[in-house]
Fold this sequence. Notes:
The structure holds 2 protein chains of 2 kinds.
Chain A: H1 2-16, E1 18-22, E2 33-40, E3 47-52, E4 69-74, E5 79-81, E6 83-86, E7 89-91, E8 103-114, E9 117-125, E10 132-140, E11 148-155, E12 163-170, E13 173-174, E14 183-186, E15 198-204, E16 217-225, H2 227-240, E17 263-277
Chain B: H1 2-13, H2 16-21, E1 30-39, E2 50-53, E3 58-61, E4 67-73, E5 75-82, E6 89-95, E7 99-100, E8 103-105, H3 110-113, H4 124-127, E9 133-137, H5 138-142, H6 153-157, E10 163-165, E11 173-175, E12 183-187, E13 190-191, E14 196-197, E15 202-203, E16 210-216, E17 230-236, E18 245-250, E19 254-264, E20 268-277, H7 289-292, E21 295-310, E22 313-327, E23 331-349, E24 352-369, E25 378-398, E26 401-421, E27 431-432, E28 436-451, E29 455-469, E30 472-477, E31 483-489, E32 494-512, E33 515-526, E34 528-531, E35 542-545, E36 553-566, E37 571-588, E38 604-620, E39 625-640, E40 649-650, E41 657-666, E42 671-680, E43 684-685, E44 688-694, E45 697-702, E46 708-709, E47 713-723, E48 734-742, E49 752-757, E50 765-771, E51 776-784
Parallel strand pairs in B: 1-7, 1-8, 12-17
Antiparallel strand pairs in B: 1-4, 2-3, 2-5, 5-6, 9-16, 10-11, 12-13, 14-15, 16-17, 18-19, 18-51, 19-20, 20-21, 21-22, 22-23, 23-24, 24-25, 25-26, 26-27, 26-28, 28-29, 29-32, 30-31, 32-33, 33-36, 34-35, 36-37, 37-38, 38-39, 39-40, 39-41, 41-42, 42-47, 43-46, 44-45, 47-48, 48-51, 49-50
Amino acid sequence: MKKLLLIIILPIFIATSCTERIDIELEETFTRLVVFGTLTTDTTRHYIELSKTTSYYYNQAPPPVTNAVVEISDDLGNRVLLTEEKPGFYATPTSFFVIPGRIYTLQIELEEEINGHRYYEASSAVNAINPIDSIGLIYQPLWGESGFYEVTCYYQDPLTQDFYMFDIYKNGELLTDTITNRIVVSDDFFNGSYTNGIGVGYLDQSKERELLFPGDTITFRGSNVTEEYYTFIWTLQQETGFQTPLFSGPPANIKGNISNGAVGFFAAYSVAYASAVFLP
Amino acid sequence: MRILTLIVFSLLTGLPTLRAEGEVDPALRRFTISGYIKDATTGENLFGASIYITELNSGSVSNEYGFYSISLNEGKYFLRFTYLGYEAQVHQVTLNKDISLNIRLNPVSTILREVEITTERTDENVRAPEMSVVKMDVKAINRIPALMGEVDIIKAIQLLPGVQMVSEGSSGFSVRGGSPDQNLVLLDEATVYNASHFLGFFSVFNNDAIKDVKLYKGDLPAQYGGRLASVLDVRMREGNQKRFAATGGIGLISSRLTLEGPIIKDQTAFIVSGRRTYADLFLPLSKDENVQESKLYFYDFNAKVNHTFNDRNRIYLSGYFGRDIFKNPFAYMKLGNSTGTARWNHLFSQRLFSNFTFVYSKYDYNLGTANENDPSSFLWTSALQDYQLKGEFTWYINPDNTLRFGLSSTYHIFDPGKAKGTGEESLFTEYALDRTYALESGIYVSNDQNLGSRVTLKYGLRFSLFQNVGPGTVYHYDEDYKMKDSTVYSSGDFYNTYSGLEPRLGITFLLNEASSLKASYSHTYQYLQLAQNSTAGTPLDIWFSASPNVMPQAADQVAAGYFRNFRKNTIETSVEIYYKSMRNTIDFKDHAQLLLNKQLEGEIRIGKSWAYGIEFMVRKPDGRLNGWVSYTYSRTFREVREINNGNAYPAPYDSPNDVSIVLNFDATKRISVSANWVYSTGKPVTFPTGRAVIDGAIVPIYSDRNAYRMRDYHRLDLSVTLHQKQQEKQQKFNWDLVFSAYNAYNRHNAWAINFVQDQDNPYTTYAEMTYLFGIIPAITFNFRF
């Protein structure tokens, strides 16, 4: 809804406003551990990434945290030790997947302490997702310069309160490849009903990567995430998006789920897929 | 209630002068002279005209309806009637019975204005038993250069000491560090819940339909309640009782037309005024196709009729209706206020004036998809409605005591939001927030009392009562603000009540003819507030009321000031200091969800706040060169346990240094030049002091809340008005042409500062400032016949 509002009002402001680059001196805060990793019901290698915070104008890739001991366990006592595949990237075995209904815990032991701590921890429950019946593609000629293809979804939402994250692949390539361009929604507006073709993805036909040709396969991945992860993503999108005195509240640090003041998130969730071949 | 009656009673009996009244020497009988003071050319009431009794060296002023009443001992008196911009009149009266005397003052003619004449100036600034108050008439506001040539009351108000705009171009204003929702904005007594058009670039007040504006910045009179920071009392014109007249203007972005005249001469008059913008005509110039096809305009309409039955009874009916329309190929948004006011002025006696008012006010918006029948179409609506009844009495006991009392009750109906699919095969289920109801009442009494010729006291007491009325659902929250359970109340249940006594006290000590010291104290409560956590806000922000979860906000304010006039009252100066302490200040948790949220109350975080400041002002209200210069130093802080680790932080509108210079100069007979310059310290902001990279995104890690500041804000606006030639002025058709430039030296004032990721090098970040306006020239043609 808020997006819609931005669609209506922001162009008018942008039409009248101008931007210019300015220099602002910023102080530097203390270093924190940054953790990001997701586990899904897909059987594949899953990654946990460890790095450090830097000054705001650091202008390079973040320093990785190497030689940590990273372990994942579930509430039945199963344990997996992750291996450092490249600096700061810790991987599960390729056979790894999570099971709906279980709770997964991430434990990290650092070689050297950061911000006074060597041990960090986070947990996530896994909610189940129903299968997705099908997806469709609808051309919206009025949107943007060359129109958009809207990916529509047919899915029975359960009566529980659910939070979803949407990803789109084109011919196997993930288009929603950063946390800032993924769509997250709550089921407030369709709780318990059949989502008779709600929009779950948007392909901008003025962008080469998203441009569709006959025969292209579009795959939709729906994930049933926790409310905590849903909130993490939309607050992150808010903090990294365009801020104005009209819509934006005071900037605030996004809240993750890692212990001891580390930044980031550890999420585990169920995923479901549906594909369609583009035939105009 | 019994307590209140007791207090009122003791207040009344405690008045020494009142007790003395029973002991008046029967040989010296007392009579009353009363009447209305009007503009001789239009028949409109003059509010705040002074009546001065030469023999007694004291006087009075006319009320909002032009009524005055003075009770004096039998005798002969010279009464002097004066009003800024009008020729004074002196009447000799022999008071041996009650006298009704209506006065018609002639405006100083425009031809005379061009030589430096000193119209009669009163010492109101020094003598009036009120402080922290500014009254502006529309003529003065018209002279101030305006954004896109649209003369605007609220933009003029923002130039006063202690008042700041909340964001570039915004109609929101902050008074002495308060939030915009702590201002009570009244249009003919009806609360205007959103005073802005076009996201704040323009206010809802069409200057052609407005008579005068009074802003109370602190020392709120007891008849007003419900807001902590200020009252902006805007009154519409009544219409010309003498002859038909038309006023209008054609500007770059809007046109307006006002028609007025008598229906029955000297008895019934009307005024209707309309305004429509056509800014959307320029949207096709944009490069963006969607912007080209957008519609963006507003219109508003004011109407008022008044009828005088006789000297004792008069009625006024007035209304306002305005709408903003935004439309583009996918969606639309419509929003606006409607208000209606019916008033009956009744004189019970020459000394007891009364006014009864019924008010209806509504603010609503709806937002939806352009196509109503798609499965994905939806409509989102929200509204707030008020029904208010009010009775106000002024009892002119004697020249030393004027007692005011009254009561009011407002029924609020909140529809905070409802969203539903509109198509036949809609994808969306309805999501609606409950409609809630509340009753807000007040009863007050206050007295203006002269103690000898030097000291004037003004004291009053207001008792306010706020009740949540069923049906309604109250959610209960645990310590982490998570909803535990809820209670449902049935229709007609008064399920929650807050009440409070609000004392007001003011003292004016006249040091000599030209200077005075004043001090005031007030305690106020606020039961309604805006769910807004951005600085400028949007029209979608909703009002919500006190409830079992939300305690009413309360404020104590003390202020003191020194007032001095120079050169026969032609130059007014003042210095005021204030300290304000507020309880139950509302802020919101980080990343609060304020729209379409059933558990909005769980997003609120309550703390305290305090503000202090000193305001200097030099004002020359009239003459060839007129205007004012003001400087304010002020600070405002908040402290909320869950925000900023419980440490105090500067409030969003904390801007320590603030300068306004407003000047108007009649350069020649045909040309007048106006300029205003504003400067203020940049608003507080929170900037990143570190960053984390999460899944490819650069995520900021922030400083303490509001630890940084925007760049300082300053701006110069200029205008030149060309009047018609002298000989043409005798003609019926009058015109002038206004050339104006907003932001004349093209200062790039930051509206927003963002930190952005470089497109080509994703690990590089830089700061980017967005500014709204460069220099904006405008031309407006005004006419009158």
